[in-house]
UniProtKB/TrEMBL annotation:
<comment type="similarity">
    <text>Belongs to the trans-sulfuration enzymes family.</text>
</comment>
<dbReference type="GO" id="GO:0019346">
    <property type="term" value="P:transsulfuration"/>
</dbReference>
<dbReference type="InterPro" id="IPR015421">
    <property type="entry name" value="PyrdxlP-dep_Trfase_major"/>
</dbReference>
<dbReference type="InterPro" id="IPR000277">
    <property type="entry name" value="Cys/Met-Metab_PyrdxlP-dep_enz"/>
</dbReference>
<keyword id="KW-0456">Lyase</keyword>
<dbReference type="GO" id="GO:0030170">
    <property type="term" value="F:pyridoxal phosphate binding"/>
</dbReference>
<dbReference type="Pfam" id="PF01053">
    <property type="entry name" value="Cys_Met_Meta_PP"/>
</dbReference>
<dbReference type="GO" id="GO:0009086">
    <property type="term" value="P:methionine biosynthetic process"/>
</dbReference>
<protein>
    <recommendedName>
        <fullName>cysteine-S-conjugate beta-lyase</fullName>
        <ecNumber>4.4.1.13</ecNumber>
    </recommendedName>
</protein>
<keyword id="KW-0028">Amino-acid biosynthesis</keyword>
<dbReference type="InterPro" id="IPR054542">
    <property type="entry name" value="Cys_met_metab_PP"/>
</dbReference>
<dbReference type="InterPro" id="IPR015424">
    <property type="entry name" value="PyrdxlP-dep_Trfase"/>
</dbReference>
<dbReference type="GO" id="GO:0005737">
    <property type="term" value="C:cytoplasm"/>
</dbReference>
<keyword id="KW-0486">Methionine biosynthesis</keyword>
<keyword id="KW-0808">Transferase</keyword>
<keyword id="KW-0663">Pyridoxal phosphate</keyword>
<feature type="modified residue" description="N6-(pyridoxal phosphate)lysine">
    <location>
        <position position="205"/>
    </location>
</feature>
Amino acid sequence: MGSENNNFKQRQFATKLIHFGKEIDPATGASSTPIYQASTFHQADVDANQEYDYTRSGNPTRQALEDYITLLEGGTRGFAFASGMAAISAAFMLLSAGDHVICTEDVYGGTYRLLSTIMTRMNVETTFVDMTDLDKVKAALKPNTKAVFLETPSNPTLKITDIAAVTTWAKEHDLLTMLDNTFMTPYHQRPIELGVDIVLHSATKFLGGHSDVTAGLAVVANDSLSRRMKQVQNGLGTILGVSDSWLLMRGMKTLQTRMEAHEVSANRLASWLSAHPGVEHVYYPGLEFHPGRAIHEKQSRGYGAVVSFDVGSGERAKQVLAKVQIPLVAVSLGAVESILSYPAMMSHAAMPREVRLERGITDGLIRYSVGLEHIDDLLEDLEQALQG
Ligand SMILES: *Cc1c(COP(=O)(O)O)cnc(C)c1O
C-alpha cells in the first residue's frame, strides 16, 4: 500500500487513479491526503535543507496532486495552478521577447486572448493555423519560432490534429510543443507518449468533474523543463490553493468511471442527433463521417463527452437553450451534470462574425457536454426542446 510499494507506475490506469503513492497519509494512515492548510513551515534547523519551507514554493497537499497528474500523464513533473489559464500562461512564460509561436486556429478562447492581447505586449508573436493540415503548420515556421501550441480535439467543432506528425516535425526544428488536453484527459489521450513536451489542463472541467473547483495543471516531459517550469510557477506565484488541490484529487479518483459513462451517452446522443431532421450537422470524433476520425483513433483511446451540433439558425439555437430542462445552460463542460453552451454568444462572442463563421462556429451551433444523467431522459428532453 501507499508509497512503500513502488510498482504503482506499472499498474493499469484505473488502479493508478486510486493508488497513486500519496493516497494514504504516512503519518496517521488516514485514507486521504491531509489538507496542509499552512502558508509556511517551521525550520527547526535553518542549516537543514528541508523539503517544504513556504507554500507558494511547495506544499505537501499540492505536491500530492502534482505527483498524481504526473503519474497519470506519464511525465516527469507536474504543476498545479489557480486555473487552466494560469497553467497555460505559465507555459508561455517559458518564452522570451522576440519569440514566435505557432498555434492551432480554433484554440480555446482564453488562450487566443492571452496570445493575441497579452503575449503580443511581451513581444511574443503568434501565427494561428489550421493544424489539421501539416503543410500549413510547416509554412508558418519563422527563424524565431520557438513553440507550437496544439489543442485536439478542438473547440467547439472537434477538429483533429495529428499529434505525432506535429511533434516529429517540431523536434526537427527544436521547437517546444505544448498541448491542451482538457477535452480528452489522460484517460483518453496521453500526449507525452506522442512526443509532446508540456501537457496542459483546465482541471476545472473533466478532471475536477463536478463544476465546483477552478484549477489548472501542467505536466512536463523532461528534467530541464521541470526546473524551468518550477522557476516560473514559484516566480509567478499563480499556484493552486491547498483546499482546491484536495478537492481536485477527490474528483479525479472517479475520472475513468465518469469518462466511460460520459462516452457511452455521448455516442448515443451523437448518433441520435445525426438522424434528427431538425439538426443540420453533428460534430463528434466518434461519428463515421467525422473528418479526423482515423487520426483521432490512432492517438486517443476514446472520443470524449463533447458533442456539437447545428440546429440551422440562431433563433432555433436560442429556442433549444430556452426549452431544455435537464442540462445547465452555461460556459464550461466536463461535469457530472450535462452542460449546454452556445459558442456564438458565449465562448466565441468576442470573435468577429466572419471569422467565427469561417471556422464553422455558426449561429445555430450548440455544444453539449454530456453528463451522467440517464441518456433516455436527456434525449427526451432535447427532443421536446428541438420541437416547438
Ligand atoms: C476551460 C478551458 C480552459 C481554461 O481553463 P480555466 O480553468 O477556465 O482557466 C483552457 N482550455 C480549454 C480547452 C478549456 O475548455
